[in-house]
Specification:
Blueprint: E1 6-17, E2 23-31, E3 37-43, E4 54-56, H1 58-68
Antiparallel strand pairs: 1-2, 2-3, 3-4
Length: 69
Amino acid sequence: MNDFSFEIVEHIGVLSTSSKGWTKELNKVSFGGRPAKYDIREWDENHEKMSKGVTFTDEEFNKLKEIIK
C-alpha cells in the first residue's frame, strides 16, 4: 500500500512551462504530513503528478538566496 501524501501549502511562483504543459514551480510543500519545505519541481496541470525535484529547509533556502545575491 502506498501511503505517499503531499500538500502544496504555499504556491510561490512558476519558473517555466514545458511544451507538454507541465510547470516548473517554487512552492512550499508538506510531504507525508511533515513540516513544509521549499520545493522546486515540475507539476502537471492538476498538481496530481510531479517530477523529481529538490527541497530546501528554511535555513537552506535562506542560504541559497544569499549565495545567489
